[in-house]
Design brief:
It is a single chain. By secondary structure, the protein is α+β, with helices and mostly antiparallel strands. The chain is built from 17 helices and seven strands. Helices cover 45% and strands 13% of the residues. Strands 1, 2, 3, 4, 5, 6 and 7 form a seven-stranded mixed β-sheet that branches. Helix 4 packs across helix 5 and helix 11 crosses helix 12. The structure holds iron/sulfur cluster. Iron/sulfur cluster binds at residues 153, 156-157, 200-201, 206, 208, 211, 213-214, 217, 219-220, 225. Iron/sulfur cluster is lined by residues 153, 156-157, 200-201, 206, 208, 211, 213-214, 217, 219-220, 225.
Length: 357
């Protein structure tokens, strides 16, 4: 019991909302979804911002909204166009869930997101955090929106030693947020916390001298400000060797669509095998597809990190004798790759080669 009381920390020295909101209104970044925070805008931006830096996500957001300005447009979007709009953002299950949810919203809610935390959480791809962000920022409802930034800020404010990756710590953090959140400014309060975590209370290097909550924070002036939060290390990723062959004929490259399940489902890729092949075996595999290499150059190696797997890619670029595309493949030139075929960021190095960069 005593141990728990110690590790749960101690509360800040007063309510945080007045100083936090005053700071937010002076320092908040101007962002396209903040200028017009409809529930749809907040939803799309929050999904894009999971695992993606703000500066990288904003151009995607603008392009997405231009192409798909409504939930209905998202629900009706052809799969390849949606994949093209998401190309390079990664974590493609987010994109698929967006469309699944858009279809449910059109079917069950007349194309408008439901103004209810509980109903939002029932939609595909919308978890506690995203539902809280849409409810509070998009609808102005009192709700917590606890992301990594908020967990870090609160663990330092409370000088809390508990592991923030546990469900119990997240639940406790949400309760602490609600105890501090002014109901009339729920969305601004949540955004202010995220902004403080993104600009001031940074991982490893908090700028406590510039923090509006310095006078209230239990970690201020102690080494714990930089050390916290406590977070269990992630399990190691499984390493998967991958052999890539950029097969080219008459300026076009061989592409195939990945299967419907698993990593990068439904997206396009160059010829590859998820195993390490030596040169004679790779050439024999090409032969089995009816392709005859005329030259054979090593490709630069590349690495890509998925949540649980690391791909280590190497292989060859080769010109092959003109031949019809094997079953399940297409020949695609640079312009078609640019316009039509969504190649995930895992193939960034090889995509650049195919585009002649
Ligand atoms: Fe974070 Fe430092 Fe502010 Fe505390 S005083 S909330 S540790 S930036």
């Amino acid at each position: 019991m005593e141990q728990n009381e110690q590790t749960a920390g101690c509360p800040p020295r007063g309510p945080i909302a007045p100083a936090l909101l005053a700071w937010f209104y002076r320092h908040r970044r101007s962002l396209p979804f903040r200028e017009d925070p409809t529930p749809y805008h907040i939803w799309i931006s929050e999904i894009m911002l999971q695992q993606t830096r703000m500066s990288a996500a904003v151009p995607y957001y603008l392009r997405f909204m231009e192409a798909l300005p409504t939930v209905q447009a998202l629900a009706d979007c052809p799969e390849d166009q949606l994949a093209k709009l998401w190309e390079g953002l990664g974590y493609y299950s987010r994109m698929r869930n967006l469309q699944k949810a858009a279809r449910v919203i059109c079917r069950q809610y007349g194309g408008q997101l439901p103004a209810s935390l509980e109903e939002l959480k029932k939609l595909p791809g919308i978890g506690e955090y995203t539902a809280g962000a849409i409810a509070s920022i998009g609808f102005g409802l009192p709700a917590p929106a606890v992301d990594g930034n908020v967990l870090r800020v609160f663990s330092r404010l409370w000088r809390d030693e508990r592991d923030i990756s546990t469900p119990a710590a997240k639940k406790e953090c949400a309760a602490r947020v609600m105890a501090q959140q002014p109901p009339e400014s729920a969305g601004d309060f949540n955004q202010a916390l995220m902004e403080l975590g993104g600009l001031v209370c940074l991982p490893g290097t908090p700028d406590c001298a510039a923090c509006p909550l310095a006078g209230l924070c239990s970690s201020f002036g102690t080494p714990d400000a930089a050390r916290l939060p406590v977070k269990a290390p992630r399990p190691q990723r499984r390493v998967c060797p991958v052999t890539v062959v950029l097969a080219e004929s008459r300026g076009k490259f061989l592409l195939s669509r990945r299967g419907k399940g698993g990593l990068l489902a439904g997206l396009w890729q160059p010829l590859l095998w998820e195993e390490k092949l030596d040169s004679p075996v790779a050439r024999a595999r090409l032969g089995a597809l009816g392709l005859e290499p005329e030259d054979w150059q090593p490709l630069p190696s590349a690495r890509h990190l998925f949540t649980h797997v690391e791909w280590r890619m190497e292989g060859w670029q080769c010109r092959v004798k003109p031949a019809p595309a094997p079953e399940g493949f297409v020949w695609a030139g640079p312009e078609e790759i640019r316009q039509e075929y969504a190649l995930p960021g895992a193939f960034k190095v090889y995509r650049a080669r195919m585009l002649g960069r």
